[in-house]
## 1
Amino acid sequence: MRGWSVAPQSVIPDAMIPDVSDLGLLDDEEIELDLAAFALSELDHDGIDLDPYLELLREIELRLERVGEDALTPAAQGEALARVFAAEFGFTGDAASYDAPLNADLIRVLDRRQGLPVSLSLLYVAIARRLGWPAHVLATPGHVLVRIGDEPYVVIDPFHAGAPLDQGQMTALIRQFTGEGTSLRPEYLAPAANRTVLIRLLQNQASRAEQSGDAARALTLSERMTQFAPGHGEVWWQLARLQLQRGFFGEARHSLNAMLEVTRAPERRQQIKAALAAIPIG
């Protein structure tokens, strides 16, 4: 693991960018979203100097501390986040090239100050948490959002400059991806686990790689997901599927067995066993 030094005036505590393999050993609440996303991004940028990026995060946090000095309510904290990230530092959603893989690559997100809802949301949440604000990523269908506060709380949209959303606006947004009959379910307002957020970040890249015919890239990204989220059975299922497509039968068998170890639902276990039995021997 590599540490980075913090300037004396910075409010950011000493932190470590973890190795991806170490992320799988941490309790979920110990994961710092931005540092974990850096660890994943760095794998695609061999030899890159991360100091300028970490310094940018320090600058954002220092500015947020000043702007949000008197922000004692979730609404005020949401406004402070929007002002600092969107108005002052220029972070916004990339609507023009939404499907570009760089929008889920944290290093490139900081270079361009543009990204997907999930990459921007994890930045908002990571910095807010360092100030002690209760902040959560919401894994809403199709479009990740941020919740500030526990009760009461506000929901903001980092992709659209941190704009606040009421329940009606949230419902309308969700229906764009799920259909007209969808209601605002309680799980859409529940905090997403840190690993779930990181899986969604990489899944954006993996699905686009597969759609473009880059099976090797999709396989690499799926392997990374199993490193930091070995207890999430579905990442093993995806990895096994890609391995089978490439004829890696032994590796696929290993992945399905790993999934079997962490899966408790009887019906799903039967599906895994059926998949294992169907793998050619040899």
Note: The chain has two domains: 2-189, 231-278.
## 2
Amino acid sequence: MDEPLLARTFVELADTMVVGFDVIDFLHMLTDRSAQLLDASAAGLLLADPRGELRVVAASSEQARLLELFQIQNDQGPCLDCFRTGQQVSVPDLAEAAERWPRFSASVSEAGFVAVQALPMRLRDDTIGALNLFRTEPRPFDEAGKRIGQALADVATISLLHERTLRRSETLNEQLQAALNSRVVIEQAKGKLAERFQLDMDDAFNVLRSYARMRNRRLSELARAFIDGSEDVPAARPAPPHGS
């Protein structure tokens, strides 16, 4: 494991006091780093909205985002079970879970993934979401990796709650709802960029994210400006995910 990257990740997850804290970029950093540090092929993150319904708010790849959407739409999968029970769900070989989640197992296998680890986003008895890790090889996540993954999810959860406390004018539900609303605009901007420059969705997101950082802009603000035509995003070679 990359120990310097692990240490840097914990510092970044814990530091929500920086000016211009961007919850969407924060959650994407969590999925990117989780996949890198825990030897996963991809990662996705679901958070509950104010009504308690799960929404996809971040993923390390477009493929992972679509799989998370599939779980929600079909009301089955390890991430949903993890959220509902507040407990980790380990599936080292999805072929053995076909009866438990028939539609999800078939879909995730078609995507090339064969193992899943779901980790709850929780503080004590309050579970606000779940982090999903996917692998392309049928093998379990080791106990040390699961402990580190849970620690990453726990620190991120505490940081989100801490941000709410720092900004007393907002509630956690308002913050999460804003993140969900921003996600819709970002998806629209990704699609527009992908069509304009003939990029796949992952590269389109990396172009948008890199340009937002270069201009010191929030992802959601830049995406909204790009969609309404008040600001352009130039063609660029997509940068690798943050921390690579």
Note: The beta strands are 42-48, 54-59, 89-91, 115-123, 126-135.
## 3
Amino acid sequence: MNLDRRSFLKISAIAGGGIALGLYESPFGLAQASQRFAPPPLETRAFVRIAPDGTVTIIAKNMEAGQGVKTHLPMLIAEELDIDWKDVKVEQADGDAKLYGFQFLGGSTATPMNWDPLRRVGAAWRQMLVTAAATAWGVPATECTTKAGRVLHAASGRSVGYGELGAKAAALAPPALDSLKLKNAAGYTIIGTSRRGVDNHAIVTGEAKFGIDVQLPGMLHAVLHKCPVFGGKVNNLYNDTQSRWP
């Protein structure tokens, strides 16, 4: 059964949630990319750039339409990368499924579809940074840890910032994403916290561009007119391609 969010909320109010959850099982399963969509493997290095000053640019893979994905999807990567959020910059990805996997918009599926894959991208980068530091120090990678954008070696007291390791880490072959161990929820420092939307300033100052801002030569506009009563049917259809809204 395909159940949209509006219907889900209506049924939840009536049934107290118990029945609704059972009905919603199928659409929720559909949102699990690994089970239903078989997405192409993510290109780990396409998602992160690390500047020498330690600034980490994370690519937001999905289209932002007011639902907050440009902020919360990069948060998944940043969490497993073990970087301080203040050192993160976010850029919007182009449409490229080969690099970024499914870039789907709609149905509240962004989090369930990307929860595991994007955390693994962050974990892969963290492992690459640890490997780069361990190689430079001549120590086993298993002796190194990370914290807030630095690789640490407790036995020798050494540490190095991600900015100094970025180029070396980027040159390494990324580990298999399904081989990585992810953080326990108890260790989260970014996921589950409130973060300001990365485009908030641009939005409130009118700088942000939305689909409605696009203007092309000879562009026409379509308007959806919903029936004012439930169960109504189309009586007639008006079509005038020469019409222009004022």
Note: Residues 136 and 165 are 10 Å apart (CA to CA).
## 4
Amino acid sequence: MTRVWLPAQSQPQPQSAQPAQSKSAEALELVKQGQKLSSAGKGDEAMALYQRALDLDPDLYDAQLYTGVSLDLQGKYEEARQHLSKAIELASEAQTSQALRVMAMSYAFERNIDKAAEYEKRAFDLQCNWKKYADAASTADELARIYLESGNLDKALQWYQTGHATALKNPNITPADKDLWDFRMEAALARISAHRGQFDQAHQHLAAGKAILDKNGTPDQLRFYPYLVGYVALLAGDYKTAIVELQKVGFSDPFIFSMLAQAYEKSGDKAKAVEYYQKVLTLDMHNPSGVFSRPLAKEKLAQLSPPQAQ
């Protein structure tokens, strides 16, 4: 979140500058309140606050950025990108990579993967130039996941490998951090193998990932393992295992809800499928999990839900 820098007391601002400063601070507070509402699934209320913030200070980076995010979540992608373009213009150096990645998600929502990749690569290059290797590696993995869920497995592999190699460039990387990135690589290879129908290889990579977790250097990653097992099982057509494993995940994520919905749907349980597709739409996430679950949930609910009585 952007900080509001106040002038030093030794350099008082002219009185005419005070109202503008006050408006910016008020606008920023409205954006913060809007983010809380959005996290609680109250997107319309959040959007109203973002609009008030823009009315107060149209040159506030946060107001432009989160207005764009909110519009994306509503499916108004072209309008969203007008605000996101403005956010990129207004961004400080430190904010630029965030703004670029948010724009990438906007294009990914519309499955314009080439444009999404363009913005992710710009963010990645900036982070590499700043020698922020962990951040750059996360951006590379984000782009890899966009390619993965879009079906471009070769590009996905390329960018997961780039992310892993970039993370290891950190001269101060700890053994635990190396384990983290090794686990993420095995997780990527398991999913890619599953998409290719190479389920023996997928399970080998799952086992290799579990061995890294069992070293206990990355305890916070344990919660992701059932997700990976469920992911592979879903692609293998083992819907019972997919449901069992995905229900073990101890956190809310729209992509996991989407996979559960698909597993129930393919198992013939329409009611549970509808329940989980509806859960997807309760989470306003502007990231790959949201990108590859939210539009699908809307489409599926239109197909599976009975028409409302007039």
Note: The longest helix spans residues 17-39.
